[in-house]
Structure formats: C-alpha cells, structure tokens
C-alpha cells in the first residue's frame, strides 16, 4: 500500500513535468511549422510529442529517485544526463515518427536548438532555485545551531553550579 | 547565589530552590531539572549500553533491524523508527527518509538537490538524504526555529 502511495506521488510529479515538456514541445514545433508556412500538423505528431514529454519526465525523475547520497561526480553526471537525455530522446522520436523531412531544414535545426536551450534553461533555473534554498536553509540552520550552543553552554553552567 | 548541597542517607532526594523573584535563569534551571533524561538502550557485542539522545547521530533500519549510530560505534536497538522518532522528537530527532531517523542537532550544513531532496551533512562528515516526502517538514522545522527547547 505504501509502495503504491509512493508510486502515485511520483507519478503525479512526473505528469506535471510531462505536461510542461509536452506543451513546450508542441508549442515550439507548431510555431516553427507555422512560421515555415505549414498550417496543419497531424495528430500523430502531437501524440508522439506528448508521449515523449512523459518519457522524458520519467527519465529525469528516475535520475534522482534513490534515497541515498550520490558522490559528487555521480551527481554531476546525472545532472548532465538530465539535460542531454531529453535531446537524444527528441532526436530519436522525431526521426522515427518523421517530424521533419530529410535533409534537415533550418526549421528542424532551430527546433532542436530551442529545445536544447529550453532544457538547459530549465536546469539552470532549478539550479538557481536549489542554490537559493540551500543558502536560506543554511542560514536558518546556523541560527538554530547558535541557539543550541548557547543552551548547552547554559546547561554546563547549571551543572557546574550544582557541583559547587 | 548561594548553593548548598547536603548529602542524605535515607529518604527521597530533593532539590529546594529559594528565590525572591523567578528570573529567566532560575526558570531555565527549573526546566532543566524537570526535564526527564531519556536514554536509549543499545546492544553491541552482547553487551547493553545506555545511549544519551545527544550522542546518537541517527537511527537506521537495516533488514528490519534498527541501529543507532554514535560518533564511534553502532548499536542495535529494540525500537521501531516510529517509536524512536516519537520518543526523541524533543531532542531534535525527525524522520528524514523511509529508513532513517536523524538527529538534527548533528547537521552542520544542508544542500538542496535535484528531485527536491536535501543532502544533510553531519558533523562527522557523513551525508544523509532527507527525501522529498520529509523535506517539507524539515524546512518548516527550520523556519519555525524549533530545537528541543
């Protein structure tokens, strides 16, 4: 039951992120196609992009799923994969389901470039968010540790007083 | 302040505080004396040891057994993680992931990481993960400035 509850929570997280990825991809693809003069997009491509968003979100979640500390290099590799894997998936999915015709046009290259920037920006945003939170928490922790130190000092004084 | 100590052979031990006015310092002394000293019984190499909460860094569940870790050794305890968390909450212990109950007084710094989890660095340089599920409670605990007061 606990495992199911945990899975459902993760699934909810993943679906949120999948929606962001999917919508971004559909929007960027639609915009570029529209600017290139294409007025209609087949549903199969939109469906692929939604599914791809879901797969990317699960992969990104899976990279940081374990409840154990990662070594520094291991964490950095996972972060790099967090940015790179979505692009690999997108390249693979787009070639399998023929989003662009070959040879690749400028529009296709622009699409991949924007998506790459999107994932890197998302990663940078998250890094900034976590950096700020780390700073704030360490500040609060510092205050708390000072309070504890003062309290321990006081207790030692009380003990010393008792011994005298 | 004059401190008098008197040894008695029989009867209940007592502490009498005579004061004109209750000061914060006196209040703290009273609180300290009133506080019950909790100890955890840990077993190691067939021997039982009394562990003070402040000595314990964390409790960990390993294969359905619970261990208490101090700076130098580990002891098997007969508590569940839920019991340890409940009994030692006022000493700064909290559940940080499904297998750990951590003493927050031993955390020297934290790092917020991808996946909304927190990497806590202890004063013995060990790293413990506060999982996403418990990270929210930890953040609130820090914001409220709760210590075991």
Quaternary: heterodimer
| Rg over CA atoms of chain B | 19 Å
First-last Cα distance of chain A? 58 Å
Could you tell me the mean pLDDT of chain B? 87
- Helices and strands of chain B, in order, run as HEEEEEHEEEEEH
End-to-end separation of chain B: 25 Å
Major sheet size, sense and barrel closure of chain B: 7 strands, antiparallel
Helix count from the secondary structure assignment of chain B: 3
Overall 3D geometry of chain B? globular
Identify the CATH class of chain B: Mainly Beta
E-strand count of chain A: 0
Give the largest interface.
Answer: A-B, 34 and 35 residues
The computed structural class of chain B is alpha+beta
Q: Spell out the helices and strands of chain A N to C.
A: HHHH
Structural class of chain A: mainly alpha
* Major sheet of chain A: none
Taking pLDDT < 50 over at least 5 consecutive residues as the criterion, the unreliable ranges of chain B are none
Features:
heterodimer, A: 164 residues, mainly alpha, 4 helices, 84% helix, elongated, B: 149 residues, alpha+beta, OB fold (Dihydrolipoamide Acetyltransferase, E2P), 3-stranded antiparallel sheet, 3 helices, 34% strand
Question: Could you walk me through the main structural features you see in this protein, from its secondary elements to its overall organization?
Answer:
The complex is a heterodimer of chains A (164) and B (149). By secondary structure, chain A is an all-alpha fold. In chain A, 84% of the residues lie in helices and 0% in strands. Chain A is elongated. In chain A, 14% of the residues are buried. The model of chain A has no long low-confidence stretch (mean pLDDT 88). Chain B has one domain: OB fold (Dihydrolipoamide Acetyltransferase, E2P) (Beta Barrel), CATH 2.40.50. In chain B, the strands form 2 sheets. A 7-stranded antiparallel sheet of chain B has the order 2-1-5-4-3-7-6. In chain B, strands 8-9-10 form a 3-stranded antiparallel sheet. The longest helix of chain B is centred in the last third of the chain and has 13 residues.
């Amino acid at each position: 039951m606990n495992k199911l509850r945990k899975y459902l929570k993760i699934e909810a997280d993943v679906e949120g992120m999948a929606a962001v990825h999917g919508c971004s991809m559909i929007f960027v693809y639609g915009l570029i196609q529209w600017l290139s003069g294409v007025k209609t997009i087949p549903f199969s491509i939109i469906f692929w992009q939604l599914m791809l968003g879901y797969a990317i979100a699960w992969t990104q979640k899976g990279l940081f799923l374990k409840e154990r500390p990662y070594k520094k290099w291991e964490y950095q590799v996972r972060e790099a994969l967090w940015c790179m894997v979505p692009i690999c998936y997108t390249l693979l999915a787009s070639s399998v389901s023929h989003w662009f015709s070959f040879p690749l046009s400028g529009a296709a290259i622009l699409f991949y470039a924007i998506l790459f920037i999107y994932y890197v920006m998302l990663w940078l945003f998250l890094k900034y968010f976590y950096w700020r939170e780390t700073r704030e928490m360490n500040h609060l922790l510092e205050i708390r540790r000072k309070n504890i130190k003062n309290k321990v000092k006081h207790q030692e004084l009380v003990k010393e007083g008792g011994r005298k | 302040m004059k401190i008098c100590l008197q040894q008695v052979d029989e009867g209940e031990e007592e502490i009498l505080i005579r004061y004109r006015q209750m000061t914060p310092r006196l209040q703290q002394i009273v609180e300290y004396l009133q506080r019950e000293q909790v100890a955890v019984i840990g077993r190691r190499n067939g021997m039982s040891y009394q562990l003070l909460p402040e000595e314990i860094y964390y409790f960990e569940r390993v294969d359905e057994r619970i261990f208490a870790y101090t700076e130098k050794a580990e002891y098997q305890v007969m508590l569940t993680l839920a019991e340890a968390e409940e009994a030692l909450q006022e000493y700064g212990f909290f559940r940080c992931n499904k297998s750990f109950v951590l003493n927050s007084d031993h955390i020297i710094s934290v790092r917020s990481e991808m996946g909304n989890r927190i990497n806590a660095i202890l004063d013995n340089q060990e790293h413990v993960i506060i999982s996403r599920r418990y990270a929210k409670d930890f953040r609130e605990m820090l914001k409220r400035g709760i210590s075991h007061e």
